[in-house]
């Protein structure tokens, strides 16, 4: 968090007067993922994991291979992949992992995405998440269940688009729906002018060679009816607004959803009701 606070202070110091001078700082604001230490009970679970690592190539920032740390619990035949959100890490699913490990039938695989947790990378993006998921598929095979929170939910949906095989269950917890709007919200929070924002989006589209309109769940979920998709969300979530999610649900009616009114974007992954619902769905596979 200290690094993020410094980025914000540097942006405020420029006063928004020079859109070009702001651009390097805006890339850091958008693509730097703050890191939080593990809690004691999380560390105990990490210590019990089977640890491995793999490499993904970062073609946009460092232009180098980054080490991605991966963790596995259990030896059952039902493979479950967990994909964490922005500014998070694998072990933030600790409560869900504990519940799933009550079943001898499962093995749980999770990873720290590049630039998050213990993995390498100064900056991160959706594509690095997706490439990590694809590497895990190559190493461990296609997961039976894919569970993602926030940006991790969007990354799972994007990765499945590029897979030859689909999971049996896809579970999205407060997934991001419109990446451009999330970026805009971050820039609005530090009073970035429309001119500077438009410069950032133009540079973004030039770097990635695609429109920001392509970074939406509406565009990515191109396999309706071929994957059993279940979604959990919070009505007052400012990061993943309910209006965006409900518009997605209207377009893709095969997705089932549960709406909550008394949790938060961060706490929904440790909400006992959500964990119980997920556990029930996973148990249908054995």
TrEMBL record:
* Full protein name: Alpha/beta hydrolase family protein
Q: Which residues form the signal peptide?
A: none
Q: Name one Pfam family in it.
A: Abhydrolase_6
Molecular function terms in GO for this entry? Answer: hydrolase activity
Which segments does the entry list as coiled coil?
none
Question: What InterPro entries does the entry give?
Answer: AB_hydrolase_1 (IPR000073), AB_hydrolase_fold (IPR029058)
Q: Top-down, what is the taxonomic lineage of the species of origin? A: Bacteria, Pseudomonadati, Bacteroidota, Sphingobacteriia, Sphingobacteriales
Name the PANTHER family on file.
ALPHA/BETA-HYDROLASES SUPERFAMILY PROTEIN
This protein's UniProt keywords: Hydrolase
Enumerate the SUPFAM superfamilies for this protein.
alpha/beta-Hydrolases
Origin, by domain of life? Bacteria
Query: Where do the AB hydrolase-1 domain residues begin and end?
Result: 80-209
């Amino acid at each position: 968090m200290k690094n993020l606070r410094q980025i914000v202070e540097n942006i405020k110091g420029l006063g928004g007067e020079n859109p070009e001078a702001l651009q390097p700082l805006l890339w850091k604001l958008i693509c730097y993922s703050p890191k939080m230490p593990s809690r004691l009970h999380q560390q105990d679970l990490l210590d019990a994991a089977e640890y491995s690592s793999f490499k993904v190539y970062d073609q946009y920032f460092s232009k180098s291979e980054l080490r991605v740390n991966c963790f596995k619990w259990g030896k059952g035949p039902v493979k479950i992949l967990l994909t964490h959100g922005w500014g998070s890490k694998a072990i933030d699913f600790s409560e869900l992992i504990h519940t799933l490990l009550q079943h001898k039938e499962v093995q749980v695989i999770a990873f720290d995405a590049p630039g998050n947790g213990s993995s390498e990378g100064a900056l991160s993006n959706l594509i690095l998440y997706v490439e990590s998921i694809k590497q895990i598929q190559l190493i461990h095979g296609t997961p039976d269940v894919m569970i993602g929170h926030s940006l991790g939910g969007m990354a799972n949906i994007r990765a499945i688009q590029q897979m030859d095989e689909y999971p049996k269950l896809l579970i999205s917890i407060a997934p991001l729906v419109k990446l451009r709007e999330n970026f805009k919200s971050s820039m609005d929070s530090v009073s970035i002018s429309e001119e500077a924002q438009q410069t950032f989006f133009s540079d973004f589209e030039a770097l990635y060679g695609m429109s920001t309109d392509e970074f939406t769940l509406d565009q990515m979920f191109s396999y309706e009816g071929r994957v059993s998709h279940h979604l959990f969300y919070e009505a007052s979530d400012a990061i993943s607004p309910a209006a965006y999610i409900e518009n997605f649900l209207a377009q893709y009616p095969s997705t089932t959803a549960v709406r909550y009114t008394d949790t938060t974007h961060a706490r929904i992954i440790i909400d006992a009701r959500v964990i119980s619902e997920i556990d029930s769905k996973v148990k249908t596979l054995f």
